[in-house]
Every structure is written in structure tokens, then in C-alpha cells.
Structure prediction request, 271 residues.
Amino acid sequence: MGPADPERPAAAAADMPGGLAVSQDGFTLDLQTPVVDGGVPAELAFAITGPDGRPVTDYTVEHDKELHLVVVGRDLAAYAHVHPERDSRGIWTVTAPPLTPGSYRVFADFTPAGGGGLTLGADLVVPGDHRPVALPAPAEVATVDGFDVSFRGRLVAGSESEMTVGVTRNGEPVDDLQPYLGALGHLVAIRSGDLAYLHVHPLEETAGPGGPSVRFAVEVPTAGTYRLFFDFSHGGDVRTAATTAVTADAAIAGDVAGVPADDDDHDEHGG
Prediction:
């Protein structure tokens, strides 16, 4: 057995998908409300502690916010993207939508000032009788409040993939999506099973209305099944459309969620 490599733990942490650990690089997600009541708005409080053990109060703004908080059910049926407020002590608080009984994962996505971006995760429990919901099958289009949202592209394990999300209503492209978090939409990808939180970023930022398509780069670490949550704003309301996607083999380059990869000759909405 050879000598230990002192850089191996750091390299392993750097390669690990976000959200699987409560601590990384000296930073810890301290969820102060690990148990909340179901059926009523969930009052959450937490802090991000730094290498010195004290709550962090200096962050780099990313996508219009110092920190993004996402709450997801273990069965991926429930999802909430909320924006907490921080006090001068470094304590964050937010009221999340009512949650049904079950187990949840809370993700804090942030960049400490002078450091790199991190996503830390902690468990949240809502006591009561829990009945898990089966993960929906992959689908071409998700419908929410009369909007049809398509997910076009491939998720290829071990590489960065491009995904284009398109929004239509009554068969017509929606070209007046409102900016949300610095872009025309926000995409979150969660791996089924361990709830790894994937790194996704918009390929274009905007300061004005647009659409109907929004392009994202998605880093997929392994083969598997993922749940995609797309937040978009229209008419002053933020909605979430969700679908299930299965990775394509890198050699075969199959389709994701039954939707063909982007092709300028066949993309009826453009990019």
C-alpha cells in the first residue's frame, strides 16, 4: 500500500456533485430548523458557518442573490425555490410553502466572498404519515397553469450538455418571459436516488423580456435518472415546470425525455 496522497480528499470533494455533503471546504450548512410541521407555511432558519466556525456575512452575488435555497422531497415530488433574507449576524430565514409529511433535502447554493461556488445540503423532516410518490416517466412536455414547457437536448454522463427549454401557450410561443434571477428562467437538476444537485447555468443573461427559448449548460457527472425543475416568470408570477430525464450514452447520444437534440433546421421556436 503506497503513501497517502494529501491532495486526494480535496480532489474528491471537488469532483463530488453539489448537495451531497453538509460541509465542504470549511463551510457548513447549519440548518437550525431540521423539523417543521406539515400543512402550514414552513419557517426555516439556518446559517452558513465558515472555516472559523462563525456565520458567514460576506457573499458574492450570483444570479441576483447572495444565496439560493431549494427544498426538494426525497421522492422528488415536492420542490420549492425560495429566497431567504440574512440578518447582520449571518442568520438566514425564509417562509417556504406548506410541506406534506416526509423527508426533504434543503440545498444552499452560494459563493462566499473570495471563494468558489458551493452547494451544501441538509436533511429536513416533516412528521406524519408519508406516502412516497413514484417518479413520473420521462416526457416531452410539462404543463403548468396552461403553459406547455418543452425540454430539448441531451444529458450525456461525464460531460457538459446543452439543454433548451421552450415555453408556449395555446400553441403559440411565449416571447414575453420576464427576467428571473438574471435570465429568462432558472433550471435545477436533481439526481434521483442520492439527490445530487447538478451545476446548471444559463447561457444567456438578460435585462428585458424575451423567449420563448432559454438555453442552459448542464454538467452531468454520472449516468442515471434526473428530475429537472424549470422556474420562469410571466405576468408577474413565477411558475415551475418539471420533467424526468434519463442520461444518454455518450457514444450513442440518445435523446433526453423523448425530445430530440437541438437542430436549427427543426427547432420551430428558435434559440
Notes: Residues 129 and 184 are 38 Å apart (CA to CA). The longest strand covers residues 159-169. The chain has one helix and 18 strands. The chain has a mean pLDDT of 88.
